[in-house]
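How it folds:
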Amino acid sequence: MRTATSLVVLAGLGLSSLVLTGCTPPQGFTGGRVDPTRTTRAEAGSAQVLPASLFEFSDKVAQQLAADMKTVPALNTEFRQTVVFGNLVNKTGVVPTSDFEAFRTRIRGSLMQSQNVLKNVRFVENKAGVDANIRRETGRSTDLLGEGRRTERAELDPANTYFLDGEMYRVDRGQSSVNLYMLSYTLTNMATGEIIWQNAPYEVKQAR
């Protein structure tokens, strides 16, 4: 009985020492936790864009998009212009919706952290997003809010408001072992419908 009790105590002490020393279980390649930037065997054999590539591509896009927006004259005036987050359409045919949503959210979050861009631009949600929030909280749409309860979205100045829309697509060569993913953005003026800027597509190439 004493021996069994001693083993239990020693096991407990061993576990406590792991916790106190800050040790964590080893990361695995085929099971357990895996570094998000590491490509597993299953991912390497997939035709879909790799998670590591997706993260790297989204960071590259956000960085380049922020830099490009600083070169657009209409967005760099004496007062802040308004940019509405529009649609980012998945036309790849292979990137799952959940992966694409994570990709889009990562770009948007990084862009919102760019103080260099925020000096001249304020970002707002699109009308569909605003309406969804209002319906969830009030059960009514923006059209039914009435005077005195208008949202900021309803007070936009069309002449100084721009839609940021994008498309992500894939160039495939049938049995080719390489996929080229491309992302194109446009800025469109709300008042005139004029496309004031379109980027040279941001690209990432992945070998299967």
Summary: The longest helix spans residues 2-20.
